Sequence to fold (360 residues):
Amino acid sequence: MFEFLLFRGVAIMVLILANGFFVAAELSLVSVRETRIEQLIAQRRPGSRLVRRLQLRLDDFLPAVQLGVTLCSLALGWIGEPVVAAIFEKWLWWIPHAHVWAHVIAVPVAFAFITYFHVLLGELVPKALALRKAEQVAVAVAGPMEVFIQLTRPAVRLMNRSARLVLRLFRTPMVQEGSVHSPEELKLIATAARRSGLLPEYQEALIHRAVEINEVPTREIMTPRQRIFSLPFDLLIEEASARIVDEQHSRVPVYDPARGPEYIVGVVYSKDISRLMHFRASAKTRFTEAPFMELRLRQVMREVLVVPETKPVLDLLHEFQARRRHLAIVVDEFGSTVGLVTVEDAIEQLIGEVEDEFDI
Fold:
């Protein structure tokens, strides 16, 4: 009898600890930061690559964990009640039908006893460890969990297929990868980090702007057409130079005077005008196409980038980078000019106001 109780008692403790192992494995691998695991991989920490692999295979990992927890719980009930019944039968030997009464009493007692230790050692303690030391726990449990997943792969695949079938009845897709944060969640995380002192306020604002930048259309950051400084393409270079110096612009839109200022046909760079004026002053060049005094903007203007007013600012930045441009004309759905946007406008949407020497 003693050997029977000892064996069953050890089995109960092993099952409770095994349950705690699965609980800690699930919580640690799900809660540990992917960025931290990438750092551990770079540092060649043993087990870190396996943790990353398990995080990328949650559709195998989570069912295996649930299978382990369920098996431990069922086995606890199966083993625990006979142990308690045997103890009570020994104490109640003097009562008629002691065997029956022992089992009647053993059910609630075993339930209460096992539940207490199951919750304490199989749930609360493992969860606390997994939350406080997610990184260490994840690395420690990754190897055994990989072995368990391989051993239970047929059962895991059966459960996954069954789950997909049930979810299909409710027209709900099954999640294949680990959870990702939505833009709103990222902003909440940044705010929480700032409140806890992990991030300064300006970095929180930068993260918020980075998350929101693709939701902002170009029309919200552009200079309206009414405020655009532009020049007609038939203007003489010398006249244009004086006006550009007065306005202190590095790039100026050029329009067709026959159709009006809203018909932008190109852009002229102040550096091109300055170079021409310098060449004229130094007399180091001669123009074969026309005398310098008759050279006009249409002969030195460059192609202008045109973007729709609905274009997200992030896409605008990418286009500026790909096309190597710093200025674009903004048009509406009918192709009419509604404004002008520069790469500085787009960058300011991300990092805040940037003042140059002309803003002071």
The chain is about 60% helix and 10% strand. The radius of gyration is 36 Å. The chain has a mean pLDDT of 81.
